Amino acid sequence: MLQQFYPQVFHDFRYELNKDMQIAAAHFIDHDDAGLCRETHGHTYFINLTIAGDTLNDSGFLVNFKALKEEIHGIYDHSLLNDHPEFVEGLPTTEVVARVFWEKVDARLAKQGNRPYCLQVLVRETPTSYALYRPKRDEHQ
Ligand SMILES: Nc1nc2c(c(=O)[nH]1)N=C([C@H](O)[C@H](O)COP(=O)(O)OP(=O)(O)OP(=O)(O)O)CN2
Ligand SMILES: [Zn+2]
């Protein structure tokens, strides 16, 4: 079962939606601090995306849940994160994964006429560790 409780983002948009998903992915952290995580290993990542905006599109959606899943699950599921160019320079730590996922999702939202915003990305790597990425207001395109 997917996680049901999330850290809340405070905002004054009219609408908010949250999309949960899981991806099976491998990674390695090529750094002396990483210990055993220097070796390639896998996780079932749990991801929660928080999207908000003031207007709906002509389908009555803030954004289609399926579009959000395509943008993350469709690209990273059953892959080695280190193989993706976006992780070649920034090591795929939980924090960096959360930021990269935000960049992808918010860039997709920027193409919509009703312009929803991704306000928070939560990435849970293990049952005992997660990271959040919350953009600064001026980071949105
Ligand atoms: N700030 C970060 N610290 C660590 C990261 C990270 O991404 N950001 N990653 C790791 C490892 O990759 C590991 O996958 C996760 O570490 P950890 O939560 O310590 O894993 P455990 O299952 O061993 O946790 P326990 O609570 O001790 O069982 C390390 N650090
Ligand atoms: Zn790991």
Overall pLDDT score? 94
Percentage beta strand: 25-35%
Give me the CATH architecture, please: 2-Layer Sandwich
- The assembly state of the depicted protein chains is single chain
CATH topology, by name, is: Tetrahydropterin Synthase, Chain A
In DSSP terms (H or I, runs of 4 or more residues), the helix count works out at 2
**Low-confidence runs:** none
EC number: 4.-.-.-
Keywords: Lyase, Metal-binding, Queuosine biosynthesis, Zinc
Protein name: 6-carboxy-5,6,7,8-tetrahydropterin synthase
Cofactor: Zn(2+)
Ordered list of secondary-structure elements with their pairings:
Layout: E1 15-27, E2 41-53, H1 65-76, E3 79-80, H2 94-109, E4 117-126, E5 129-133
Parallel strand pairs: 1-3
Antiparallel strand pairs: 1-2, 2-4, 4-5
The protein binds the ligand Nc1nc2c(c(=O)[nH]1)N=C([C@H](O)[C@H](O)COP(=O)(O)OP(=O)(O)OP(=O)(O)O)CN2 and zinc ion.
Zinc ion is lined by residues 27, 37, 41, 43, 125.
Please explain how this structure is put together.
With 141 residues, this protein is of the alpha+beta class. The chain has a single domain (15-139), classed as 6-pyruvoyl tetrahydropterin synthase/QueD (Tetrahydropterin Synthase, Chain A, 2-Layer Sandwich), CATH 3.30.479. 20% of the residues lie in helices and 30% in strands. It has helices at 65-76, 94-109; strands at 15-27, 41-53, 79-80, 117-126, 129-133. Strand 4 and strand 5 form a beta hairpin. The model has no long low-confidence stretch (mean pLDDT 94). The structure holds the ligand Nc1nc2c(c(=O)[nH]1)N=C([C@H](O)[C@H](O)COP(=O)(O)OP(=O)(O)OP(=O)(O)O)CN2 and zinc ion. Residues 29, 37, 93-95, 125-126, 128-129 line the site of the ligand Nc1nc2c(c(=O)[nH]1)N=C([C@H](O)[C@H](O)COP(=O)(O)OP(=O)(O)OP(=O)(O)O)CN2. The site of zinc ion has 5 residues, from strand 2.
